[in-house]
Amino acid sequence: MKAFIRKGSLFLLFALLSAACSSEKEPSSPKETFRTYSRAVKQKDITTMKLLLSAESIKMHEQEAKAQGVTLDDIVKRETLLNESQTVVKVRNEKIEGEKATLEVENSMGIWETIPFVFEGGEWKIDKKGYQERLMRDIEEINQQQLDDVINKGRIDPSNSQSTEGGNSNTPINSNTPTITDANSDTNTNANTGAKRPSPED
Question: Is the residue at 134 inside a domain?
Answer without folding.
Answer: yes
